[in-house]
Amino acid sequence: MDGSLGLYPGTFDPFTYGHHDVLKRALRIFEHVEVTVGVNVEKDTLFTTEERTRLIRKCTADLEGVSVAVHEGLIVDRARNIGAGALVRGLRQVSDFDSEFRMAFANRKLAPELETVFFMTSEEYALISSSMVRDAHRWDGDVSKFVPPPVVEALRRKKQSTV
User: Fold this and answer.
1) What is the mean pLDDT of residues 87-114?
2) Is the pLDDT assigned to residue 101 strictly greater than 90?
3) What pLDDT, on a 0 to 100 scale, did the predictor assign at position 96?
4) Which of 25, 52, 130, 137 is catalytic?
5) What is the DSSP string of 121-151?
6) 43, 109, 131, 161: which one is catalytic?
7) Considering only CA atoms, which of 83, 44, 84, 37 is closest in space to residue 59?
8) Mean per-residue pLDDT for 26-52?
């Protein structure tokens, strides 16, 4: 496993400024970070896997050392397959810690050689979550302070296609 490669897994539905912030922080530590879009057939997402992948690529085009991939299955298997040395996880609030703590221990049991590295998001993004963005969007709220312009545009198009 390579310590210069981090894997940032998530659903990213949609990709927010908080995700972007965590990714920029991770790039200070890792030479390369793969943003891994998880496929979870049990999760009802607003955007398809392909749409989320395309949006993340657009939102991270300004960052060097980033790639975007899709993975279905155990994230530790993806990490092993690409030689990642660590999983990148973002923390916004104390409430995130409980679930992240349990997930990190489960991943350590599955892949003891893989580290989990937590990054605190900037204060300005601490209250942003993908579910909050989806809720605000559902009720025609202005989400432009929470998500990058490509996501704002995709949300607008999504809204128009359902009307």
Assistant:
1) 93
2) yes
3) 84
4) 130
5) PPGGGTT--HHHHHHHHHTT---TTTS-HHH
6) 43
7) 37
8) 93
Burial class (CB in 10 A: 0-12, 13-18, 19+), 32: middle
pLDDT of 157 above 90: yes
Q: Is 19 a catalytic residue?
A: yes
Please tell me the distance from the alpha carbon of residue 15 to that of residue 149, in angstroms, as a whole number.
11
- Find the largest Cα–Cα distance for the chain: 49
Residue spans per domain, the chain: 2-162
Residue from 7, 2, 3 nearest 107 by CA: 7
The secondary structure of 37-58 as a DSSP string is EEP-TTS--SS-HHHHHHHHHH
Residue 5 β-bridge partners: 32
Average pLDDT value for the chain: 94
Among the listed residues 25, 52, 89, 92, the single catalytic one is 92
pLDDT band, very low/low/confident/very high, at 2 (cuts 50, 70, 90)? low
Whether residue 14 is preceded by a cis peptide bond, meaning omega within 30 degrees of 0, is yes
Active site residue 43: yes
* Domain 2-162 top-level CATH class: alpha beta
pLDDT for res 63:
97
Candidate list 19, 25, 71, 89, residue with the active-site label: 19
